[in-house]
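Q: Give me the 3D complex with farnesyl diphosphate.
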Amino acid sequence: MNFCSDSAAVDAEIPISPVAQRSSRVPRHVAIIMDGNGRWALRRSLPRTAGHRAGVKSVRAVVEESIRQGVAALTLFAFSSENWRRPKSEVNLLMELFLSALRSEVKRLGENGVRLRTVGDRTAFPEKLQQSIAEAEEATRNNNAMVLQIAANYGGRWDIARAARRLAADVRDGRLKPEDLDEDLLSSRLSFPDLPDPDLFIRTGGEQRLSNFLLWQSAYSELYFSDLMWPDFGAEAYATALADYARRQRRFGLTGEQISTGPADGTE
Ligand code: FPP
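A: Here is the predicted complex, encoded as structure tokens.
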């Protein structure tokens, strides 16, 4: 199977935006569950699919604000492993939207220095879409202002199970011993070992759950829930979330006193 993360794993290193390096109060990596498209549309007596179309504008706004603020990586949950269970017409519209957004946005992403990648099992997608994803990834691979990851047909448990399978194969083939296995080794077999774990995990749409998104990688993420539906979550709401993050003290198990004068990620 061709998982996009395999190509990610061979990349030596994703350069972190110089702007992002300036302040650790800016999250290096933001992950977002873009929820509420359907309800946004239904409240306007529109079909759910109109909400997804409107959601593309928010994607654009959040990407541009991320670049402005110096966020180095942004991972958006566009389609979960469970979303296949939605009505076929909605699944088809989402596939079309991904395809048209890829085609129309690649140039703009290039102008903004954004590198596009997908995470998830894309082998289940229509051939045309897989082709466009591969082209967009190739066209943007040398960009280094920001990494934009679209999680598509992704599930956190799928990611962990696949990492475990890879490690099991290494043990079976004698490349590793069971006692070698630790957290770092498991992390290295996940979908994007070259990126830092998300510092900030945002969910819009008023729900407060993780929905099988980045389960392993978000162990220490700061969580931020917004009641806004995704199409209403623009640059301003996103900037508010980033400002909220900047005020938080991340402790990673230490006491507040130990790091009271440190920055948001406790590293300086
Ligand atoms: C969740 O809202 C949203 C999705 C399943 C799809 C997200 C897709 C987009 C924003 C469109 C384009 C994205 C890219 C990356 C080009 P929901 O339908 O579950 O909303 P509801 O909870 O109100 O029903």
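A quick observation: Confidence is low (pLDDT under 50) at residues 1-12, 18-22.
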